[in-house]
Amino acid sequence: MNVDATPQGPTSGAGFNGPVKQRIESIDIIRAIAVMAILFVNIGSYYANQSHQPPAIVSPLDVWSDRVVGLLVLDKFHFIFAFLFGVSAAILYENMSLRGKVWRPYLRRMAVLVAFGAVNLILLHAPDVLIFYAVNGTLLALFFRTPQWVLLIIGLVVACGGNLASVLVAVINHHAATGIEMVPVLSAWVVAQSLGHTFLGCWAFRAGLLTDERRIPAVRVLFAVAAVGTVALWAWALSLSNTSLINAINGNLAIVPAVAYLSGLVLLLRSSRLHTRLLPLQRYGRMALTSYVTHGVFGITGVTALASVTTIPYSLLLLLCAPILILQLVFCNWWLSRFAYGPLEWIWRAGTYLIRPPMRLR
Fold first, then answer.
1. Does the global pTM surpass 0.85?
2. Which of 7, 196, 225, 164 is closest to 83 using CA atoms?
3. Is the distance from CB of 189 to CB of 131 less than 8 angstroms?
4. On the CB side of 108, how many CA atoms lie within 13 Å of its CA?
5. Distance (Å, rounded) from C-alpha 203 to C-alpha 197?
6. Long-range contacts for 263-268 (Cβ within 8 Å, ≥24 apart)?
7. What is the torsional sign of CA 186, 136, 30, 200?
8. Residue 278: phi, psi to the nearest 5?
9. What is the residue extent of each domain of the chain?
10. With CB atoms 3.0 to 4.6 Å apart as the test, which of 22, 60, 98, 178 could cross-link to 8 if both were Cys?
């Protein structure tokens, strides 16, 4: 989700030590990449919701498309999206603290997000994480003043505990054929993983990992470790034929490649040349809420039109993402060249502060 108060440019660099005066463009670019990638996962759910059956796997291309999405995308970018929501919450808290008003606007902001999520779920019958994020953001608010190490420990335990246990169950079932089922507590733990991702985002911002040049050596180490772990996980998944175990690895251990993606992008975007070339994505990232919600609008519309004519193979379904993303990217750049906020971002801000923000650029 977008950062409140529309900060623009470099921050104070060390979390809560000073005001975030400018938007961190790199964070917007990474957010844009995450939102765009999530469509490749959600498009299958849009199809299943409309046709009441999963996308058709009818050719080797469909098989490999499904495997590539599972390997490279599934749950990886949901982690990054939730992580950046925690970053945004931390920046929001810092900005609101400077104004002397925190809790009422902050809670109103979470309430508006719940409303967006409810509309998205009821009208579109679309996969929705906005309500979860609002709950996560509210719970995170209870820990804004806690030491960094508390955020880190809670984040790691909640984000990884249930997932590691799930992988262990899948491995035992694979090798011993025990038929162990996921217990309700373990299932609930996995569902709560996005709360851990949000805590980790808040911790990373406070630790300066995204903004402080002095933390770049730590980011390089993090990337190296995560990249090695990612290659090992991919090699493991590709060596298997057990679908249940492959899905357990791709989904429950997604945090490892997600951290590699995230830290790698942080390092790559330090290049001014690459940063400049990717600036069109920054406007998409600033309109992350509008883009996410319209995923469902365009996705379901396109899927419904095609499904009424023929059965859609999985590989063709993925191709449908391309025109949707291109249309959104063009729209976001056109819109923000004329207006200060995206349409839904404007509503979100108005509901947060109970004001009518100026829409047109001055």
1. yes
2. 196
3. no
4. 16
5. 10
6. 263/219, 263/220, 263/222, 263/223, 263/226, 264/223, 264/227, 265/26, 265/29, 265/30, 265/33, 266/26, 266/30, 266/209, 266/210, 266/219, 267/216, 267/219, 267/220, 267/223
7. negative
8. -95, 5
9. 25-353
10. 22
- 3-state DSSP assignment of residue 101: coil
CA distances from 15 to 24, 193, 207, 220, 300 (A): 13, 23, 6, 19, 40
Q: Which residues pair with 339 in a beta bridge?
A: 360
- Measured distance CA(323)–CA(307) in Å, rounded: 17
Share of the chain above pLDDT 90, in %: 49
Mean confidence (pLDDT) of the chain? 85
Rounded distance, CA 36 to CA 150, Å?
A: 32
Q: What is the DSSP letter of 2?
A: P
Secondary structure of residue 340 in the 3-state scheme: coil
Of 175-179, 242-246, 303-307, least confident by mean pLDDT is 175-179
Judge contact between 288 and 32, C-beta under 8 A.
yes
∠ Cα 57 63 68 (to 5°): 130
Q: What is the pLDDT of residue 134?
A: 94
Question: Taking Cα atoms as reference points, which of 5, 171, 145 lies closest to residue 88?
Answer: 5
Alpha-carbon distance 157 to 139, whole Å?
15
Given a contact cutoff of 8 angstroms between Cβ atoms, the answer to whether 268 and 223 are in contact is: no
CA–CA separation, 95 vs 347, rounded Å? 19
- Looking at residue 179, its pLDDT comes to 58
